[in-house]
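Subject: sequence -> structure tokens, single chain

Hey, anyone have a minute? Need the predicted structure for the following. Not urgent.
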Amino acid sequence: MAVSVPRPGAGWDDLSPPGRPAAHGPGCPSGRPRLLGWGAGDQMGRAARLVEAAVTVKRRRKLNRIIASGSSEQRLVLRARIILAAAEGTPNAVIAAALGCSVLTVRTWRGRFALRGIPGLFDRPRTGRPAVHGPSVRLVVVATATAAPPDGQTAWSHVTIAAHLDERGVEISPAGAVLVSIDERTGIQAKTRTYPEIPLRPGRAARREFEYVRYGTVSIIAAMDVATGEVVTERIGRNTSAAFTAFLAMLDERTDPAPHIHLIMDNGSSHTAGATRAWLKAHPRFSATYTPKHASWLNMVVQWFGVLTRRLLRRGDFTSREDLDAQITAFTILHNKTAQPYQWSYDADAEHARYLERHPSPTSLTQAA
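Reply:
Had a minute. Here:
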């Protein structure tokens, strides 16, 4: 069956076969459309023919942002492309062929846009159960699911996560325990500038030589008492489970034997190795909570490593690895004289509210339009 070539912006009538009455209007016996698309009746058909006029400069910019955004849903990108093509007067059949969709899809979204603007391109909110748990509880579940699974298992299940949370609740450590944040810092460069730094003076900033001489690297392991902010460090040759368990044995000897020791650490290989797990199992005084993968900032001692970098390592001169080790030890002793516990200020509910502000829902876009 031959299809007539539609004229630009023709709306519902652009695909009427030759010799057959139009889909609606005077030639249609019922006077009503055969294809309703999304809305109802002649109002939708007339609205679809107004797409060209409805695409203002402001709306065109918003449509282009939707297309350019890497986080936009593909179905929303398709709808935005349909509207931009229709605004150029492109026939529905041509748009459908170019974008790989049906003519009915083109008609539908032209009509929705003509009636409601950009908010009409979003799916209407669907009814469903209201949320039972807030962002804070969801973070606890995610932290558990991304941590190392229980012994003898390779993955978490809904049942094991529920049992784990039921046993521990939201408490991070047993009551009365010493909470220790522990991690390694590897590959710290021992280097000195080729020429000494020229100090600042009135009218001229300090000057530093960009060339330097390297003397090797140093790796350390550090543990922070979360309750006091005090830190103990030790130089290690390699970041292995043997070095890690030796450091834990040192902590065991130097800590009051009465309290339990609860470790906060990431999922590094030295922390999750079989030898480390066996050592922890053989020393029931120790227990551990693993931070989620790719979330090392949750570990307090990592914040202290940032302080060490800013105040010592970034601008320091170290003539040997021994000199670097000695300066790190001296810095740690000085830090412990005035140590204060870090105050955790992260608020999951507030962060979730900020996320909603940065990623508005279709409902808020409707109100803005």
